[in-house]
Structures are given as C-alpha cells and as structure tokens.
Amino acid sequence: MAATRANLLVFPAEDMKALPMTIFDFSHLTAQQRLELIGELWDSIEAEDIPLSPEQVAELDRRYATLDQDIKEGRDAFAIYDDLTARYR
Description:
This protein is 48% helix and 11% strand. It has helices at residues 31-43, 54-65, 67-73, 77-87, and strands at residues 8-12, 21-25.
C-alpha cells in the first residue's frame, strides 16, 4: 500500500507546540497492527490529560449528584438482557 495522507501520522517533536513535526508512515502495517496501535495510543492517554469543557464538567457534576437516586431507580443489565432476549426470540 502506498503512503497517503490517510495513513500518515504527524507527531510533534516533543510537545503539542513544538516544531518540526515527525512523520510516521504506517502504510506498511496490517489492519490488525493498526488496531493495536490505536489501542496503545488510547491507553497512553491519562484521564487528566483530556480537557473538558465547562458544559461537560457541569453534566458530570449533575450525574454524580443524582447517582444514588438513579441507582435505586435503575435496572440490572442482566435483567434487561433477559427481557430483550425473551421479547425478540
């Protein structure tokens, strides 16, 4: 497979503001290897490195505040699965 813009990753040299960029050509990787690379990249990101908007923080706070009540009103995932399985057999 020839290298195209779709299969080239451009990484900053040291941090997100650094130049010049380093180009990683992954056109030689199999689909499985690319999926593994995605997993490794995802796993390398720490939760605190992901910026949240004020709206996202407010929504998370709202959900956390209602967690105890929501758990009481919720249904077990296995019960839902059983109901759906029985309904659509």
